[in-house]
Amino acid sequence: MRSSGASGAGALGFRVGKGNDKQHLRARGSSSPGWRFSHTAAAVAATAFLAASLFVAYDATQTFADARRDLAMIGEMLAADLAQRSPDQARESLAASEALFSDAIDAQFIDASADISAPLSLVVPAGPHGSLAVSASSSQPLAEIAGRGAAAFALAGLLTLAASRRRRSQPDPTQRDSYSRLAAAIPMGLACWTGTGQLIVCNDQYRSRLDIDDATLTYHQAVSRLIAGGYMKLVRDDSSVRLLELHCEDGTCLQIDERPLGDGAFMTLVSDITETRRTNALLHAIRDEQRLLARRYHEEKLKAEAASRAKTNFLAHLSHDIRTPLNHIIGFADLMQHQTYGPLGDARYAEYVATIKNSGEHLLASFAAILDLAELENGSKALRQDPVLLDEVLGVVAQRFRGQAKRAGITLDIGPATGAVLRGDRLGLIRMVGNIMDNALRFTETGGKVTLASFVADDGVVIEVTDTGIGMSEERLAGLSQPFALGDARFTREGVGPGLGISIARAIAEQTGGRIAIDSSPSLGTTVAISLPIDPAAAELIAA
Known about the structure:
By secondary structure, the protein is α+β, with helices and mostly antiparallel strands. About 50% of the residues lie in helices and about 20% in strands. Helix 9 packs parallel to helix 13. It is elongated and about 130 Å long. It catalyses: ATP + protein L-histidine = ADP + protein N-phospho-L-histidine.
């Protein structure tokens, strides 16, 4: 707090009069109430109330914008945390978060079609849990806006009173009653002081805060009572305002705002900002926690990427090292199988040599697939970007697997042509669709059906491979994102390989700018959809 001199108080201002009211009344006439509302005073009043209105509008906009920004930050942090948890853990974590935020913020899972109409609310995606609705009560922002708005209009009113009053030591009883009614309407502690530090008027909130009944209280006595229960911190001090914070022993925090009224008088506004400071502290803690989580996520991401690169390099080197001796084994087995340097003797040797050759070729194909996947993942194997006719790619795949489907007793249906033109690697696209078709035929029983079709739209095409095979459970589908995952015994039949077909197909699709989606049900079959973008420029090149 500051003294009356430091507050800009002078010799004139709001002071208690000493018997000179009748002289003023006689000088202005018996009908004059003691007011002088000139054109200048009217201009001051209009300017003051206009400024107060603009301040309230700006303050309301800024306060709700800050509240929405803080709510969005909290919602994103909660959604990111809940998306990594199971449904039960997510509900427990959500309940714990609601306990942390108390009544200030409410968060709950909702359906995507739910209508959220609260003023301070938003919906953020929560991964597998659907959507998370986060809302905050607007009562606190409205109360803060109302408090500051009341202070602004009170200040405008006091400035109007100061501009229109006559220059004399103290308002008459009529004026004092007007001041009292004005002060009582302000929803915070307010007191007006003369230039000498004498109390002019104060409202009930100020009296209850200082526990005073004495109308002769001075400014210095009020300061002593305020700081008796805590300590004071200066926040701002300039020619127009002095802002302080009073931290009380009971944990409450009061904001004391002192502003000059002219002619040496000044006013003091006292408001309770305890809840605001607690909310700010909570938001600050949330921001710190969010920064910590972001840093940890970045560190773990770097570790995971380094581990993935090490794994890919290891697989690439391993594949190279093993392919060389396998080529020797296959070559020598082939020579022995053809008995280039004479007969083997026992007829069983020919059967053994054929088994060695087939096993070596199977291993060579497996390691070749591992090497291809490693090169596709680390980007060392670049795919061509040529104009490719989608119908030609599907025709090559259909021709390749038509004989296999016939021998297995499986019906193979091919959809109508689309005329779509893609930009990509022709051989890579054939291999991508071929891997999916191979899986579909491999896991479809005799008498089943496999359909290869394509659909075109304005922004891309979708290739669908649908079978009526054994299908997969949700757990098996979740494991398809990991290479070498086969799942259960039904997927370990002879010739399946290392389980890289889907992984290689997905890598090719992603490098071509598309993605793969899989839908499957046990005993009903599987549908694999590959979405790829269309390149109009490539279509023009094909047409030319």
